[in-house]
What we know:
Blueprint: E1 10-16, E2 19-24, H1 26-37, H2 45-72, E3 76-83, E4 86-92, H3 97-127, H4 135-155, H5 163-176, H6 178-203, H7 206-234
Parallel strand pairs: 2-3
Antiparallel strand pairs: 1-2, 3-4
Amino acid sequence: MSFAPPPEGSLRLFRFSGIQVYLHWTWFLVAGYSVTNRQGYYSSVVWNVAEYLALFLIVLIHEFGHSLACRSVGGKADRIVLWPLGGVAYVQAPRRPGATLWSIAAGPLVNVILIPVLFGAHLLAQQAGMLDGNPDLQRFFVTLRFINFWLLVFNLLPIYPLDGGQILQSLLWFGVGETKSLLAATVIGFVGAAGLAIYAFVQQSIWMGVMVFFLFSNCLASFNYARARLAQEREGGGMGPVA
């Protein structure tokens, strides 16, 4: 997808199952701000750090869901980059609606699976007495469950290129073809992005405003690509790439 950080400045973390994981340098800047901004929620800053790392662990597992699903249908997936706005799995699924749909849907499916897993871990900790006299651990579990659920809901918004927007495009692809489905998904994405922009304004959320800017920019680029490609197809140019 085009919604991705630049490869320059990314640090190699590790390699798993042939997939190289990178961390963009800007992640550290936002991590410092986020940890500092959350001071007071826990009794120690160590918990703030743990919370931020747990957030990106969930993001990483989500991205591995995309990558491994893509490989299972014969696609290519060899890189994941973590950056302040989340994570990006560089996948190239076979150009079939079913293959693309599975490659995209597997990411949110990971978050769905994590809902009972995190709930179970929280319940076991409670039954083991680990939460007695330890309000920080209690807050940590509650926040972790909220983060996972929030990521699931946000990613499923029908705004291209979020997972929800790409899932919508894949479903439409079965009926109207690849190009028209992309055009329709991006038009719907503009409406969703406008709704998020209103929400960001009402909440006075700079962070959400930045997210809306990136979403709108990528949605616009994909919309223009789809229009150019549709025009090319109508002129008899086939399915070749559009510059």
